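Design a sequence for this backbone.
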């Protein structure tokens, strides 16, 4: 296809005209690169054609390649799968590469890059090596327990080592799904009564009219989601139908409310939106002065609690983190605004905004970022978080098998030690399934099918 006398020098870019191998028609002018195995991405001989990216050129090049003997398009993820079989990557690194390809924010990029470079691989391989070493000691005890060369306290040594290992594994698992939330996106749900400005807030976040906004209460009847980037954190933000308990007769509105409450139950962060005028009117009706004091703060907090109960969402307070967003500050006078400004240092969960003028939006974003940091942390190369449910499942299984091993070892009868060894084998097998040291085609197919075609 390049009419060259031979392959180019390894890893040297050559500018060549690329021809159809049958018709000899020139198709494009591009770069040809030759990577002989095993020092290539897949470990095999690899030739790369760097061509212009128009659909017509790519279509012509692919058609020309298909005319060559024994050539076919790669299956989804096939190049990376071949690299895995050539021991270029383990499965955690493969998944890190997949996440890096799909990363949309800076935090996702960092986490994926660290994983692709082996941050999780090192931890899981070290744990598995410790299990296999412990298993070897247990099997030696079984086979040679009467031999003078076997230490009498070998089982105690194994027990102490594995008790320390389970502490490390449980600590790794008790990260509140930080890595998974960062990888999938922080689910942030906007809830509140009808016509308090939920859809307007979504539009402010998206900087576009993602949701219809009208003066009519109950415009939004379904959940509207949008993915945005807030300070490097991936956020899946959802606008929901207005929630009210009284006077709902429309079957569509009832379904919208049901979906709103269900969506809120799945949230990582709740934004409870309240019309600031209603809160001020409630406090003024109760005779609370606008000056700072415990009374006004407690009165406002009580109003928020009552507001949740009116919507029947007070039970969601334990399900997710939440911020109380008082909207429509542009409709308050200065005296009324001062109420919120003075209590702000004492109520970090409360924020006053205007979707109309965008006053207070920067403060809201700062408070959200603090919540995001608590939810996801910062990607850490030396202390990485578990990033997939698949990893978490096998880690939990491994811990269960180690716990059973330790329970059996407490009564170290000959039969118990035999059963205990099997528990250690199962624990090591589960760790091996994370990295691919132990793999099935079903696992591999599930992982690689999510790659783009080819890579």
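Sequence:
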């Amino acid at each position: 296809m390049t009419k060259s006398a031979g392959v180019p020098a390894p890893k040297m870019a050559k500018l060549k005209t690329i021809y159809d191998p049958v018709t000899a028609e020139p198709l494009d002018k591009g770069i040809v690169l030759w990577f002989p195995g095993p020092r290539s991405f897949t470990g095999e001989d690899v030739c790369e054609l760097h061509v212009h990216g128009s659909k017509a050129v790519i279509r012509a090049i692919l058609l020309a390649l298909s005319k060559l003997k024994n050539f076919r398009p790669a299956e989804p993820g096939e190049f990376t799968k071949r690299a895995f079989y050539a021991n270029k990557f383990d499965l955690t690194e493969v998944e890190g590469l997949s996440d890096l390809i799909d990363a949309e924010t800076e935090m996702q990029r960092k986490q994926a890059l660290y994983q692709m470079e082996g941050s999780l691989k090192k931890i899981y391989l070290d744990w598995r090596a410790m299990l296999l070493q412990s298993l070897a000691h247990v099997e030696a005890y079984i086979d040679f327990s009467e031999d003078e060369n076997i230490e009498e306290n070998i089982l105690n040594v194994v027990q102490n080592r594995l008790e320390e290992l389970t502490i490390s594994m449980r600590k790794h698992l008790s990260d509140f799904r930080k890595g998974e939330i960062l990888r999938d996106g922080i689910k942030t749900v906007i809830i509140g009564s009808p016509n308090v400005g939920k859809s307007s807030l979504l539009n402010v976040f998206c900087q576009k009219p993602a949701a219809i906004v009208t003066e009519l209460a109950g415009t939004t009847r379904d959940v509207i989601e949008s993915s945005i980037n807030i300070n490097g954190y991936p956020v899946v933000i959802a606008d929901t139908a207005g929630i009210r308990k009284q006077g709902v007769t429309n079957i569509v509105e009832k379904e919208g409310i049901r979906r709103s409450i269900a969506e809120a139950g799945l949230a990582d962060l709740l934004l409870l939106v309240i019309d600031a005028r209603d809160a001020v009117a409630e406090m003024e009706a109760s005779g609370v002065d606008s000056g700072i004091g415990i009374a006004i703060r407690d009165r406002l907090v009580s109003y928020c609690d009552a507001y949740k109960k009116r919507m029947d969402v007070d039970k969601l307070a334990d399900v997710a983190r939440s911020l109380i967003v008082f909207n429509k500050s542009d409709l308050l006078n200065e005296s009324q605004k001062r109420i919120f400004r003075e209590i702000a240092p004492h109520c970090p969960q409360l924020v006053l905004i205007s979707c109309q003028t965008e006053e207070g939006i920067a403060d809201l974003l700062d408070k959200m970022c603090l919540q995001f940091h608590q939810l996801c942390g910062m990607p850490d190369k030396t202390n990485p978080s578990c990033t997939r449910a698949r990893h978490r499942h096998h880690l939990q299984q491994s811990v269960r098998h180690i716990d059973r091993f330790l329970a059996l070892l407490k009564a170290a009868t000959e039969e118990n030690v035999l059963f205990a060894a099997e528990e250690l084998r199962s624990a090591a097998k589960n760790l091996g399934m994370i990295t691919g040291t132990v793999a099935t085609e079903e696992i591999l197919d599930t992982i690689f099918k999510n790659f783009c075609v080819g890579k």
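Strands lie at 14-19, 26-35, 46-50, 186-192, 224-230, 233-239, 269-275, 321-327, 350-352.
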